[in-house]
Amino acid sequence: MASSCFIDLSGPTYCVVSGASHGIGRAIAVEISKLLGPKSLMLLLARNNDELAKTASLCQSDNVKVTYKSIDLGKASVNEMNNVLKNSLDGYKVTDFATSLIFHNVGSLGNLAIETSRMEDSDDLRQYYDLNVFKVISLNTQFLKIFEAIEDGIIIVNITSLCAIKPMSGMAYYCSGKAAREMYFKVLAEEKKNIRVLNYSPGPVETAMIDQVLDETVNDNLRDVFTSFKNQGTLLKPEMTAKKCMKVLQAGKFINGEHVDYFDDE
Ligand SMILES: NC(=O)c1ccc[n+]([C@@H]2O[C@H](COP(=O)([O-])OP(=O)(O)OC[C@H]3O[C@@H](n4cnc5c(N)ncnc54)[C@H](OP(=O)(O)O)[C@@H]3O)[C@@H](O)[C@H]2O)c1
């Protein structure tokens, strides 16, 4: 049974978006910035500083001050993550915010040039898991440590994928990473009933990731699936899925930790 607790973001809100330099992350940043109340603060994270600056300029408003930080989230230490979050507060106290919200959007595809039955390079796998699973957990923990003072106002959105719950040929790195990441957030949601946790699956979206699949995959089935997405014009625009994510989030009808897909009935 879904809970039906409307989520009110109209108070002063602190909001982090990882992977905010382009694609879905940029669209999420733009859409959430429209919903936040006066004296809100956003922190945008990714590596590309110029593109982060562009996203920031799209989000800035009378209500929302936006900061951004170029950071390699696959390599950042726990201390670096903690400092980036703390420094972004820029004179605000944690208790100045009614709500603190984080979108774990950062993600990568992994090695698409290796058949699943030939995977053996654990360093390569570890690098993938660092960015997509381990460091996501570390960043989330730093966020929780800093904001536990307003625990009743903490909201976590993990950008997941259908691939977390349904196997896709040629994407063993991606599917297994997304599954592990989603399950971590489900366990957290199970333990922390006062934190709202959403696993939002954005559907197939027209971003750099789609072209990367077509460029790099050695799996014919995967190439066929993504080619037909492109040829049939079925890919969603980042704005469409970001708006849907906001709708799901605000309606608050999801069970804590639930996987909600763009195409799920409302
Ligand atoms: N596109 C789809 O169809 C689709 C479907 C389901 C789920 N998703 C998920 O949605 C999320 C966003 O995907 P997208 O399609 O928008 O991908 P994208 O266009 O490739 O964007 C990925 C974002 O992550 C950032 N990033 C990548 N590596 C990073 C690193 N080492 N350190 C810091 N930031 C890093 C990128 O910024 P920099 O390069 O500037 O660092 C970029 O902002 C991902 O979690 C993805 O798995 C996408």
Short description:
By secondary structure, the chain is of the alpha/beta class. It has helices at residues 23-35, 49-59, 78-88, 122-147, 172-191, 208-216, 220-231, 238-251, and strands at residues 13-18, 40-46, 64-70, 99-104, 154-159, 196-201, 259-261.
Structure in words:
- The protein has 266 residues and is an alpha/beta fold.
- The protein has one domain: NAD(P)-binding Rossmann-like Domain (Rossmann fold, 3-Layer(aba) Sandwich).
- The chain contains 8 helices and 7 strands.
- It has a 7-stranded parallel sheet, sandwiched between helices.
- Strand 5, helix 5 and strand 6 form a beta-alpha-beta unit.
- Helix 1 packs parallel to helix 2.
- Bound molecules: NADP nicotinamide-adenine-dinucleotide phosphate (NAP).
- The site of NADP nicotinamide-adenine-dinucleotide phosphate has 28 residues, from helix 1 and helix 6.
Task: Write the H/E string, N to C.
Answer: EHEHEHEHEHEHHHE
Q: Radius of gyration over alpha carbons?
A: 18 Å
| CATH fold title | Rossmann fold
Beta-strand residue percentage: 15-25%
Write down the CATH class.
Alpha Beta
What's the β-strand tally? 7
Q: Numbering strands along the chain, what is their spatial order in the largest sheet?
A: 3-2-1-4-5-6-7
Can you give the helix content as a percent range?
40-55%
CATH homologous superfamily - what is it? NAD(P)-binding Rossmann-like Domain
SS-based class: alpha/beta
CATH architecture: 3-Layer(aba) Sandwich
Question: Spans with pLDDT under 50 lasting ≥5 residues?
Answer: none
Instruction: Please give the largest β-sheet.
Output: 7 strands, parallel
Number of helices: 8
Give the number of domains. Answer: 1
Global outline: globular
Unique bound compounds: NADP nicotinamide-adenine-dinucleotide phosphate
Summed over residues and divided by their number, the pLDDT gives a mean of 96
